[in-house]
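Lab channel / #folding
Pinned by the channel admin:
"Please post every new chain as: sequence first, then the structure tokens as a reply. Keep commentary short and put observations after the output so the thread stays searchable."

First post following the new format, from NK:
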Amino acid sequence: MNYAQIVNGMVVNVIVADADFIATQTDKTYVQCVRGGIGWTFDGTNFIAPQPYPSWTLDSNQNWQPSTSKPTDGKEYAWDEPNKQWIELV
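Reply from TO:
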């Protein structure tokens, strides 16, 4: 299983271990995690990725969403934060 070490609500380490090992770690706080990594936050229930851009907001599933949906026309796009829009990559 993957376990995240949490310090002040932040994931500082991720290890692969069994539950018996984790039970012996009394000086560290480990939480079983399916998603997440170093730099993510843990709110006591959910692992939340770092905010990719200041304008993006968390949805009800704890995923960051842009203010404008990314086009689904099969082309490559990048987020343009100053203009808060998707721009096509050439």
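NK: The chain is about 5% helix and 35% strand.
TO: also worth noting, The chain has a mean pLDDT of 95.
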